[in-house]
Structures are given as C-alpha cells and as structure tokens.
Design goal:
Elements lengths: L1 E2 L1 H6 L5 E7 L12 H17 L9 H12 L10 H10 L9 H13 L3 E5 L9 E4 L5 E2 L8 E2 L5 E5 L2 E5 L3 E2 L11 E7 L6 H19 L2 E2 L3 E2 L1
Parallel strand pairs: 1-4
Antiparallel strand pairs: 2-10, 2-11, 2-12, 3-10, 4-7, 5-6, 7-8, 8-9
Length: 227
C-alpha cells in the first residue's frame, strides 16, 4: 500500500497501519454468533456505554480529529460519519451491534473499542500489485457494500484504490467488490488515520483487529506496518 504524493503534500501527518491475516475461515453470524464472539461483542458494547455519552461524543479529541478531517475534505461528517464513530453512535443509541460474519464482527469490535476506523479487504479480490490512497477522480464510479447502484465521485473524496478503481471511500465505506465473505481466506486490514492521530494508536488498532480475527477465524498475521 502507498499514499499518493498529492495526499502526502496536503496531509503530511496522515498515516495508516496495515496488517495481513492469511489462512482465515469465515462464518456467517446473521443467525447468531459463536458464544465467545458474542461475549466479546457484549464486553465491547458495555465498555463503550460506560466510556461515552451520545451528547458529547463529537467533542472527544479522537472523534473530533476525524470530523475535522472530513470537513477539510468538504464532506459533512454529520451525514457521512467515520466508520468507528458510526459504530459507537449505533451502540449508544441502543441499536444492535451489526452481525455480518465472524471476521467482520471481530474487527468491528476492535474498531469500536479503539475509536479508529478500520477497513478490511479480501486480499485475493484486489486487482494489481498495490493499493493507493489517493484523491478520487471526478466521475469515478464506486459501489459500496449494501448499495443498490453505483455512485459517481466528485473528486474531493479520498479513496483507497487498486488497479480497477476505488475499493473504499476513506475512511467510512468499503467496496462491495473486495468485501469479506464466507469464501475469504486472506484479508488486508487497514487502520485508517487522520491528521492528529498518531501512528502508535493506528498500530494498536490494527493489531487488536488482527488478534480478534485470529481468535475467531484462525490464521496468521504479519507485523503491523505504518505507511
């Protein structure tokens, strides 16, 4: 993975942390989670409800850093929220924690607990030798998970893109094309930073996600790499 020069120039302190986990086995959780994973979800939800209040969440420095970053990109974070904040808000609002599959649920708990947006891709669905964090090209097409039709990007968004195009709008929505499914055996985990968010927090979030993934899906992980 690499960060495009124009992104480095505009956001010189922006970093991401990347971990690969291979040899995973993924199971659907839409009809229920394994007991251990359900326990981890409950533990994470209880922690978040002790730690935060919905009325003051936007003023927490970590969440504020991502919100300010969105505003600098011309994106309204009250409508398109950074993914970690969206998870925390969901839990604080009394809504159920999303159930997708063992791998997605595991890294979502890591994202919620750390406050760091985490993107995860089926590594074997990525086209080409690398992922680039770059600005979208005006008119470029993106199909996110759960979207019924593609959207055209304005050019102001940051995207993570492979050889075929955007695989995530950074850092709040992943692509349907590279999503994790029950057929996935190798994943790339990206802890998404923002200006003002240190590399250590990103590494901790990426490693926590990898730990949870290995606990419930098996596999082996590479050391976290900061880019």
């Amino acid at each position: 993975m690499e960060i495009a020069p124009e992104v480095r120039k505009r956001f010189p302190t922006l970093r991401v942390a990347v971990v690969e986990v291979s040899g995973v086995s993924v199971r659907s959780t839409r009809r229920g989670r394994p007991e251990g994973l359900e326990g981890l979800v409950r533990e994470g939800v209880e922690e978040v409800r002790r730690k935060y209040e919905l009325s003051t969440l936007k003023d927490i420095p970590l969440f504020r850093a991502y919100r300010d970053f969105f505003w600098r990109l011309g994106i309204d974070p009250t409508k398109d929220r950074p993914s970690a904040e969206a998870l925390v808000r969901r839990v604080l609002s009394g809504k159920p924690f999303p159930a997708i599959n063992t791998l997605v649920d595991a890294y979502n708990v890591a994202s919620m607990r750390s406050g760091i947006p985490i993107a995860t891709f089926d590594a074997d669905a990525i086209v080409g030798p690398r992922i680039e964090l770059r600005f979208a090209r005006e008119g470029e097409v993106f199909v996110g998970i759960g979207m019924t039709k593609p959207v055209k990007l304005s050019g102001r968004e940051l995207v993570m893109a492979d050889g075929e195009g955007p695989i995530a709008i950074y850092p709040h929505r992943d692509s349907d094309r590279t999503k994790v499914t029950e057929r996935t055996t190798r994943v790339l985990v990206v802890a998404c930073g923002a200006p003002g968010v240190g590399a250590r927090k990103l590494v901790e979030a990426a490693e926590l996600a990898a730990e949870y993934i290995k606990r419930f899906c098996g596999g082996a992980s590479t050391p976290a790499q900061v880019i």
